[in-house]
Design brief:
The relative contact order is 0.12. The strands form four sheets. Strands 1, 2, 8, 9, 10, 11, 17 and 18 form an eight-stranded mixed β-sheet that branches. It is built from 16 helices and 26 strands. Helix 1 packs parallel to helix 4 (about 105-120) and helix 1 (about 20-30) packs parallel to helix 7 (about 300-315). By secondary structure, it is α/β, with parallel strands linked by helices. The longest helix has 25 residues, at about 325-350. The structure holds flavin-adenine dinucleotide. Flavin-adenine dinucleotide binds near residues 107, 163, 165 and 297.
Length: about 550
Amino acid sequence: MNRGAEHHVDVLVVGAGPTGLVMACELARHGVRCRIVDKAAVRSDKSKALGVQARTLEVFESLGIVEKAIAAGHLAEGINIYAGGKKACLSLEGLESPYPFVLILEQSETEQILEDRLRALGGTVERQVDVPSFKQDGEGITTTLLHAGGREETVRSGWLVGCDGAHSSIRHTLGVPFEGAPYPEELWLADVRMESSLPRDQLHAFWGKGVVALVPMRGGYHRIIAWSRETNAGHGDPTLQEIQAIVHSVGPPWVVLSDPIWLASFRIHRRMVQEMRQGRVFLAGDAAHIHSPIGGQGMNTGIQEAYNLAWKLALVRGGHAGPALLDSYQEERHPVAASVLRGTNFLTRLVLMHNPILRAARNLALPFIMSRTSVQQQARDMISEIGINYRRSPIVGESWFPADMERDFSAGPTAGDRAPDAPAVGLSFPATTRLFQLLRGTEHVLLLFGGAHSTAQGYRQLAETGHKVQQRYSGLITVHLVAGDTMPGIGLDWYGSVVLDKGLILHRRYGAVSPCLYFIRPDGYVAYRNRPVQLEAVENYLRRIFARRS
Ligand SMILES: Cc1cc2nc3c(=O)[nH]c(=O)nc-3n(C[C@H](O)[C@H](O)[C@H](O)COP(=O)(O)OP(=O)(O)OC[C@H]3O[C@@H](n4cnc5c(N)ncnc54)[C@H](O)[C@@H]3O)c2cc1C
């Protein structure tokens, strides 16, 4: 794009909830000039989203805040569902992530940690700033900002990202419909102190005539979400006594509740936009989709959207990729949002069942269904969001040939899948013990695998490819040569980073029986893979993504 000097900033982010804050942090990490504004005078102190899923924690690892988030929260390692006198468990133990749990952390804390990170990266949230209007043209966007006290300011930016929540004024100004409807049910919410013998490292859901979910928080508190015929009476926020009564009738009768921090009645909606982008304006997070909180996906989905879009904006802003790269935001994220809406709708209908016969059948079938390994894995991958993939995206690809169709390359992640973690010792970066540590940067990463039976000739070819890519795409792609226990001939041809894969665990995880390569995007997804390594095929792919370099 034309980076005209009239642009005050590259990107204007509207809304400093979790989506906008991750957007601003990521843009700052990528060196993109951005401003983030929010109309609220102070950050909300409401706990709202409590469940930070594994994939979001992986994003937090890249952002450098995962330790802080984990230290501030509470870990839940599984979900117990009690129905029809039986208990079914979903364990997160087998999740293929360094974070096999749900982190229970109040949204207000998550936002605080993100805002601190933004400050450390040189950014700041500008508060009490509303966005009454904006206008886009071929070169950028002119936005009117309304400051506290009525002062108006005009900002020119290359792009605008609307992260301004369910009532998004950016979406309204664009005239993008928010299609969907509310659910008829009204739910109760309570953050209260709870005395009980229930294990605090699990979430608990009781399904009977109504529903009671108990989420352990820090300091002996629990979030309670409840629904029954009484909650639907439409009489406003519940009292502590009413919450106690519904917990006793649907949930465990022995628990004692006290010290409420937040008591509320709320209605859930299922809505989404069909267009997450209009020209230079993007919608992300609740501005683009809202759904039931059952399943704990809303905040996490918004964070993934910001993570998906930021690196693309950075490449286009820097002139390293054409503007068509930005089309992939809609192409990749819209199907994910639609699938989250379908999944949470299914769960919500399953949980809030009115018909007693269907409820009895559900309760009978549940323990049997939940005991199946495939169901456990599917549920884990969905809730944790590590199962999300962009396999149908036009900007991912792979080339490998029928003669090479041994099962093992199929065992590796397909183009568009999330790149999995595995042990990896960085010879050039001695503190490195896991692949994810090498993926924390803002560049694409090229992993050149020597294969299980590596030869000096195989390494020489990899080194040649690595050198060419490094020369042509320096500053955009970081190259690592992944060697097995032995490294024949590396010293002769390669002076770049070497990752030692002791016991070939990383090779196996990536199906790298023979020499092959993987490109990993800055958001941790496989952009491209190739076997046998062919420089021409690799260059063809890179030309699809990056602007031509001499
Ligand atoms: C009770 C409850 C429980 C939930 N539990 C979970 C859970 O466990 N897991 C999960 O993932 N999600 C959960 N959610 C959903 C989650 O809270 C939302 O999905 C999340 O807040 C969306 O983040 P966001 O940044 O997109 O929008 P928001 O958090 O709504 O932030 C939008 C920001 O934009 C600002 N803004 C609005 N209009 C303007 C304007 N015109 N100009 C400038 N600024 C503006 C607002 O002040 C706000 O700060 C829950 C929600 C509720 C209510």
